[in-house]
Amino acid sequence: MTIQAIKTSVMKFVKDEDGLTIVEYAVAGGLVTLGAVAAFLLLGNTVCGAIGSLQQAILGNAVAVTPC
What domain of life is recorded for the organism (predicted)? Predict the structure, then answer.
């Protein structure tokens, strides 16, 4: 396969305006799911700490804060 043929194939692929296939939807859905899971994992302890601080502020220091 020549460079010109590869270039032609790539340009044809880029200009293709057909709708998304089920595989592309599955990949996009998987990436969104992965992003959501990563956000929950990265922010989980921070959110838990903030909720614990709110619990202490509302109920007072005498109340034991549930651990994360």
Answer: Bacteria
